[in-house]
């Protein structure tokens, strides 16, 4: 034992690894010096474990000391196996070459399918990426083309780029905004500044103020001035509301800005030297000098520099700059023209000579040189030299011909001009006019024939030929225009129908040539229009457009053509006769109505219009009777013809004849209208008992005719039989529950007899039956107002405006009767925003201005109301009342004439006067004056 070496001193066995039996492995740390040694391999570990097991007499363990499990059957394996897991299904058999081949085949198929899917997937991803990049491009992609174009910029161009400076004027705008910034201050500060320079001898009270207008510093706010300023602001807003929006001019909602005129005014704006800052001039001067240094032959730069110096007040520098421009850019006519403008007349002539010498083909230089001359002979001399240099310049030939006073000499020059410029239509037409002026219309016709051969696509030559034929009486204008249409269509130079209408209107504006105008419309209005199109509406639109432009002859020609195409159209005949009534003569209206009745013998309105027109002419009564007799032959059972005959006889005092006609009408055409006209006729004659019998008899045939119930109740009320009148109205409201006038009459009957409660009940029942009736709601409000119950009236008005916010009569009642005077303008502004095209509301606004003595504005609003609805008689009456106080006699008579021509039929006060049996038979003028006297 003593000779045995110490265990710790013994060398380690080969391939010994400390702790390997316990599963440890070798490792190295960062503190180890040198490279870390590699541990034993797996085979060495197995060999060592096997040797160790042999020494111990045990079975060799598995790797890392884990003993192998015995093959013991596990009965629970199949119970816990996942049925979807197919792993190991084929591992129990023998793996041969066929299985290997099958695996390789399956693997190839899988790889091929993966490649196919990969190609499709990559294509789809690439497409999606391209779409996304196209919809969301990057900034560098947006400017890629500009970056590529920078490759063509030379180094010299890069070096000559001018400094940008403050071209956006951002700094200047910032400073200007800072200077112009406005801060609102209290009224007390403004009042204190106002009174700061005044001497005040009163003693200021330090105690609390008891007046609501006093402020803490002892100053007093002037509420009168503040109220006046507020009224002024409201007036401006009201005017803006009347002129804003996209409405028409008659409604007061159209803008007055003319875009073309506005742009023209901008182009005419000139800057003065005092209005331009010195810094701006210096900055622009530096830029222009840089441009000139970059390109010494850039003509616009010299012109801009000259105008800049002129704007700055440096005339000498301006002339020097443009003189340098003429030296560096001798072929630019703009530089020579600017130099001529900047110099005086003498030097300008010298400059013009040099400019023409450098640019002999410049028409502008020749004409400007001509204008520098003061004598006509000198101008002609310059232009003749210009013609020698530029024989094809139409502008120079025109200037030369215009300077010649002798027509013969002018004709010779024009003949020479058309030889040089055969394609100039203006020169050919000028030569034809000169031939006519010199008394050679035949030669003028020859000239036009030559012009037509030289310019086969010009429509102006054909129109001139037709006009010449009309003036001389040699030829038919319509035949010429017909040939023109065929020729132009053959040359593919035919104008559109709208352009032909414009040419006809142009002829009308020049005066005369009515036959040519009519020929143009007759031959071209239907060109390009198919029969399937709504030609009737199209022709009506054309006529209305010409009327709106004031071209009445053109509109008359369009109407004539439309009537030839549609000779039996009652709509077109009515439109044409109305046009003649408004823009023609009484004789032309009667002639057209005769033709209309022959073309449409079954039209009742045309027969009645003809009878009315005949009544205004000579032997009016007899002519009107004959017309109605012809109408009876065509329409014997028509009620309107019978009633027109009754009105004619009653108007002439033939009461017996009128009564006989009514009797015959009741027998042959016993309509409800004939019956209530018979009742009205008897009431006008004072026969209330007969009228009542007619009303009772008529109600047996027509129990649901509201007018008959109203007439029956009115007759009872006029006789003082209130219970019978009430019963008649009640029966009428039950038979006609939607008749608004019946409820109004019954309510007013109850109110007149002091039974306001029943009046309210009647109106409530009527509103339930007709909830959208503004008249019933208005009457309910007026009942409360007349009863002195203003709070309830305001409540009803609020409900009415909530239900009917666009009713003009409700807004007018609210503005005029339920609002204080100071609130009328704001309410008017609010009302116009709600309903901007209501004539009753416009009249109310006019009355507001009238009360404030703003007469021009009041007259303007009255006229707008009349243009909106000329059939509203109350509007004419209010305007007449205004003119009686503030208008001229001429204006009053003109308004009366217009009212008579329009024959208004409606209006609350107007209808009450016009349908009053006691004053039946009054004309429009008498009714107008009567209504004016009743207005309050």
What does the model show?
- The protein is mainly α and 936 residues long.
- Among the domains are: 11-27 and 37-57, no CATH class; 277-419, Tetratricopeptide repeat domain (Serine Threonine Protein Phosphatase 5, Tetratricopeptide repeat, Alpha Horseshoe); 737-804, Alpha Horseshoe (Serine Threonine Protein Phosphatase 5, Tetratricopeptide repeat).
- α16 (376-389) runs antiparallel to α17, α31 (639-651) runs antiparallel to α32 (655-668) and α42 (824-834) packs antiparallel against α43 (839-851).
- The longest helix has 39 residues, at 97-135.
- The termini are far apart.
- Pfam families: PRP1_N, TPR_19.
- This is PRP1 splicing factor N-terminal domain-containing protein.
- Its main location: nucleus.
Q: Quick one: how many beta strands? A: 0
How many separate helices? 48
Q: What is CATH's topology name of the domain at 277-419?
A: Serine Threonine Protein Phosphatase 5, Tetratricopeptide repeat
**CATH homologous superfamily assignment of the domain at 277-419:** Tetratricopeptide repeat domain
Radius of gyration: 51 Å
Largest sheet: none
Proportion of residues in extended strands: under 5%
Principal-axes geometry comes out as: extended
Q: Class of the domain at 277-419 in CATH?
A: Mainly Alpha
CATH architecture of the domain at 277-419: Alpha Horseshoe
Structural class: mainly alpha
Residue ranges: pLDDT <50 for 5 or more in a row?
63-77, 86-93, 199-219, 245-275
- How confident overall, as mean pLDDT? 80
> Alpha-carbon distance between the termini?
152 Å
**Portion of residues in helices?**
55-70%
């Amino acid at each position: 034992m003593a000779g045995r070496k110490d265990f710790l001193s013994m060398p380690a066995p080969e391939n010994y690894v400390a702790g390997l039996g316990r599963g440890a492995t070798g490792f190295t740390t960062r503190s180890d010096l040198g490279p870390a040694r590699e541990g034993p391999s797996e085979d060495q570990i197995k060999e060592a474990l096997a040797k160790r097991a042999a020494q111990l007499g045990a079975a060799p363990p598995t790797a890392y000391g884990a003993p192998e499990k015995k093959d013991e059957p596990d009965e629970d394996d199949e119970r816990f196996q996942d049925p979807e897991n197919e792993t190991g299904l084929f591992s129990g058999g023998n793996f041969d070459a066929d299985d290997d081949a099958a695996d390789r085949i399956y693997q190839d198929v899988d790889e091929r399918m993966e490649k196919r899917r990969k190609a499709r997937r990559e294509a789809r991803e690439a497409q999606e990426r391209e779409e996304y990049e196209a919809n969301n491009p990057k900034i560098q992609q947006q400017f890629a083309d500009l970056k590529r174009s920078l490759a063509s910029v030379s180094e010299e161009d890069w070096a000559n780029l001018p400094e940008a400076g403050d071209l956006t004027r951002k700094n200047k705008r910032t400073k200007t905004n800072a200077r112009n910034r406005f801060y609102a201050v209290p009224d007390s500060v403004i009042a204190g500044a106002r009174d700061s320079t005044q001497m005040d001898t009163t003693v200021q009270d330090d105690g609390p103020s008891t007046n609501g207008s006093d402020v803490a510093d002892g100053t007093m706010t002037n509420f009168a001035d503040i109220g006046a300023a507020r009224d002024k602001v409201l007036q401006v807003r009201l005017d803006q509301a009347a002129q804003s929006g996209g409405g028409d001019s008659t409604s007061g909602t159209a803008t007055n800005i003319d875009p073309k005129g506005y742009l023209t005014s901008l182009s005419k704006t000139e800057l003065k030297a005092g209005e331009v800052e010195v810094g701006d001039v210096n900055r622009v001067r530096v830029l222009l000098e840089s441009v000139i240094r970059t390109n010494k032959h850039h003509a616009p730069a010299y012109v801009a520099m000259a105008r800049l110096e002129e704007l700055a007040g440096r005339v000498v520098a301006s002339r020097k700059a443009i003189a340098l421009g003429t030296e560096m850019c001798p072929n630019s006519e703009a530089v020579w023209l600017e130099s001529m403008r900047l110099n005086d007349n003498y030097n300008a002539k010298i400059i013009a000579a040099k400019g023409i010498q450098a640019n002999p083909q410049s028409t502008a230089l020749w004409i400007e040189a001509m204008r520098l001359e003061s004598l006509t002979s000198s101008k002609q001399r310059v232009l003749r030299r210009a013609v020698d240099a530029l024989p094809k310049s139409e502008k120079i030939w025109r200037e030369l011909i215009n300077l010649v006073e002798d027509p013969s000499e002018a004709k010779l020059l024009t003949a020479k001009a058309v030889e040089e410029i055969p394609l100039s239509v203006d020169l050919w037409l000028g030569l034809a006019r000169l031939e006519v002026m010199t008394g050679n219309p035949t030669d003028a016709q020859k000239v036009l024939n030559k012009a037509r051969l030289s310019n086969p696509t010009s429509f102006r030559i054909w129109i001139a030929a037709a006009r010449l034929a009309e003036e001389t009486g040699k030829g038919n204008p319509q035949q010429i225009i017909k040939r023109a249409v065929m020729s132009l269509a053959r040359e593919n130079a035919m104008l559109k129908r709208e352009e032909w209408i414009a040419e006809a209107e142009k002829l009308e504006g020049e005066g005369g040539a009515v036959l040519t105008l009519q020929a143009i419309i007759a031959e071209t209005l239907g060109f390009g229009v198919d029969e399937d199109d709504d030609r009737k509406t199209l022709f009506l639109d054309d006529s209305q457009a010409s009327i709106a432009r004031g071209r009445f002859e053109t509109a008359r020609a369009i109407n004539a053509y439309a009537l030839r195409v549609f000779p039996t159209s009652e709509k077109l005949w009515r439109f044409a006769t109305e046009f003649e009534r408004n823009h023609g003569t009484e004789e032309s209206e009667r002639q057209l109505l005769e033709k209309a009745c022959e073309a449409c013998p079954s039209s009742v309105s045309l027969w009645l219009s003809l009878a009315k027109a005949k009544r205004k002419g000579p032997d009016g009564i007899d002519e009107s009777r004959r017309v109605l007799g012809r109408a009876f032959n065509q329409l014997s059972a028509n009620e309107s013809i019978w009633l027109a005959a009754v009105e004619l006889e009653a108007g002439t005092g033939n009461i017996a004849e009128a009564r006989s006609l009514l009797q015959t009408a009741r027998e042959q055409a016993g309509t409800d209208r004939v019956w209530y006209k018979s009742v009205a006729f008897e009431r006008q004659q004072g026969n209330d008992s007969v009228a009542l019998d007619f009303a009772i008899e008529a109600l047996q045939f027509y129990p649901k005719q509201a007018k008959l119930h109203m007439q029956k109740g009115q007759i009872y009320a006029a006789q003082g039989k209130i219970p019978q009148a009430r019963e008649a109205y009640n029966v009428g409201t039950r038979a006609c529950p939607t008749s608004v006038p019946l409820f109004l009459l019954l309510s007013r009957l109850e109110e007149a007899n002091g039974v306001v409660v029943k009046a309210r009940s009647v109106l409530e029942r009527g509103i339930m039956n007709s909830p959208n009736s503004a008249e019933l709601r208005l009457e309910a409000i007026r009942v409360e107002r007349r009863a002195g119950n203003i709070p309830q009236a305001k409540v009803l008005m609020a409900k009415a405006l909530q239900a009917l916010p666009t009713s003009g009569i409700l807004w007018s009642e609210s503005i005029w009767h339920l609002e204080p005077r100071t609130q009328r303008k704001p309410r008017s502004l609010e009302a116009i925003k709600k309903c901007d095209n209501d004539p009753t509301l416009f009249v109310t606004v006019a009355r507001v201005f009238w009360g404030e003595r703003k007469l021009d504005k009041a007259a303007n609003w009255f006229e707008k109301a009349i243009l909106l609805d000329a059939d509203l008689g109350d509007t004419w009456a209010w305007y007449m009342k205004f003119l009686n106080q503030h208008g001229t006699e001429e204006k009053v008579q003109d308004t009366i004439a217009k009212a008579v021509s329009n024959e208004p039929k409606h209006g609350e006060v107007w209808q009450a006067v016009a349908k009053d049996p006691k004053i039946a038979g009054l004309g429009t003028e008498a009714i107008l004056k009567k209504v004016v006297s009743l207005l309050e």
